[in-house]
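Issue: ligand-bound run for flavin mononucleotide - logging full I/O for the record.

Environment: standard queue, default settings, no custom constraints.

Inputs:
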Amino acid sequence: MSPVLSVNYVSGTTQKATPGHHTPGVFRIQRPKRFPNRSFDTILSVIEPPRANNHSMRLKDCYNINDFRTLAKQKLPSPIFHYIDGGADDEVTLNRNTASFNDYDLIPNVLTGIEAVDLSTQVLGQKLAMPLIFAPTALQRLFHYQGERATAKVAEKFGTLYGISTIGTCSIEKMGSYTQGPKLFQIYVHKDEQLNHDLIDRCKAANFDALALTVDTIVAGNRERDRVTGMATPPKLNIKSALSFATHPQWTLNYLFREKFDLPNVSPYIKDGSNVKSSIIDYINNQLSPCISWDDAAAMIGQWGKPFAIKGIMSVEDAKKAVEIGASAIMISNHGGRQLDGSRAPFDHLQSIANAVGGEIEIILDSGIRRGTHVLKALALGATACSGGRLYLYALAGAGQAGMERVMTLMRDEIERDMMLMGCHSISNLNPSLLARRP
Ligand SMILES: Cc1cc2nc3c(=O)[nH]c(=O)nc-3n(C[C@H](O)[C@H](O)[C@H](O)COP(=O)(O)O)c2cc1C
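Outputs:
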């Protein structure tokens, strides 16, 4: 008999199940022998979007990031959902990013007389009301018609930093006038040097506060879910995707009849991805420069002249080089497990990096954050702040600005409550003595 596999679409996990046993939200399938395990799981989850326990998730029922993930899955055509949700290769790094936080336990102090908690912190020259910032993410107009404008408004409302991607769907200029909150521009270095140069000048003119150079995407990670779904920008209609678009009429109508999809920061220079359909993988491989160096990064810091972060640092050696060339911050990140699968989880390596460069450069811990306690653990081990992508993208996709406001309220409440339970008045109280690694 073929092995029986149960795929839990709610948690996203896969495990062997006892024949005959059936739990809601879990589909039992017979795995044909000819498929290698991993590819079959991927194909199944892509072509057969489930309904969680046969009832619809609603915004008011969302209490954690996993709930928002379920909501997003309901709302989005499958190529779009899997573009957000997926990682590279076997998604080992994607999963480890979050799991790594469970290898440490918090050790609270009691009777510390807390009346109120101060979550404020200073990042990239900005005083923020909370230590969780929005990591830059591409293509937000595809996830919800409100796109980057909603993200920027929510960041402003919660007093945190907003990062817009080079391949965002809102222009640097529009974003500059749209929000008064602190804003960062994430730069992908393209082969077109004029484009790189102009992007920085446009950010200066639009009064951006900080720049983040992403260094972990010189070629595209192998995101197999995107290969299976044929994910492209603008979205591609083919036999595989047509059914998914047809069964998500709300998304499809919003996409067709609201603001036209564009990548306005790059489309005056590059037609791929805006006017000419391109897979994300092809865009990255054809347009981004694979040969950027530390000298290029140093030159950019000179041209920019304001707070500058390097996003995608994972080694102690590179963290030291970032200090040497005068970067203001490093974002310890593996791009949410979307690039080099099998690479170390940022939280697993945080302490080594903090021991080497803490106090000399700001450290933003990125990738895998799903809970308030994850933020506390990272800050205790030496991070200045944390950043997250999917945690707000699921909410954006699920319910636009209202969804993001709810998710940020939940996250802020979690961080605040957890700080009180830890006996900490302010971020500066968090330190390594409040944490122990499990044997
Ligand atoms: C859908 C999606 C698009 C992303 N686009 C970009 C991007 O354009 N530039 C960038 O530097 N990082 C991008 N990232 C990576 C995020 O900035 C961040 O590193 C990652 O989401 C962190 O992992 P998390 O989602 O587990 O929080 C993207 C991530 C996702 C999920």
